[in-house]
Amino acid sequence: MNNYYSQEAHGPFQTIDIGRLELAEGGVLENCRLAVATHGHLNEAKDNAILVPTWYSGTSKIMEQVYIGPGRALNTDKYFIVVVNQIGNGLSISPHNAEPPQAGPRFPKVRIEDDVRAQHRLLTEHFGIQRLALVTGGSMGAQQTYEWAVRYPDMVERAAPIAGTACNTEHDFVFTETLVEAIETDPGFQDGNYRSSAEVSAGLKRHARLWTVMGWSTEFFRCGRHRALGFETMQAFVDGFMNGYFGPMDPNDLLCMAWKWQRGDVSRLTGGDKAKALGRIRAKTYVMPITSDMFFPPSDCLAEQHLIPGSSFRPIQSIDGHLALFGTDAEAIAQIDAHLQELLAQPSPL
Amino acid sequence: MNNYYSQEAHGPFQTIDIGRLELAEGGVLENCRLAVATHGHLNEAKDNAILVPTWYSGTSKIMEQVYIGPGRALNTDKYFIVVVNQIGNGLSISPHNAEPPQAGPRFPKVRIEDDVRAQHRLLTEHFGIQRLALVTGGSMGAQQTYEWAVRYPDMVERAAPIAGTACNTEHDFVFTETLVEAIETDPGFQDGNYRSSAEVSAGLKRHARLWTVMGWSTEFFRCGRHRALGFETMQAFVDGFMNGYFGPMDPNDLLCMAWKWQRGDVSRLTGGDKAKALGRIRAKTYVMPITSDMFFPPSDCLAEQHLIPGSSFRPIQSIDGHLALFGTDAEAIAQIDAHLQELLAQPSPL
Question: Over A206-217, what HEC string results?
Answer without folding.
Answer: HHHHHHHHHHCC
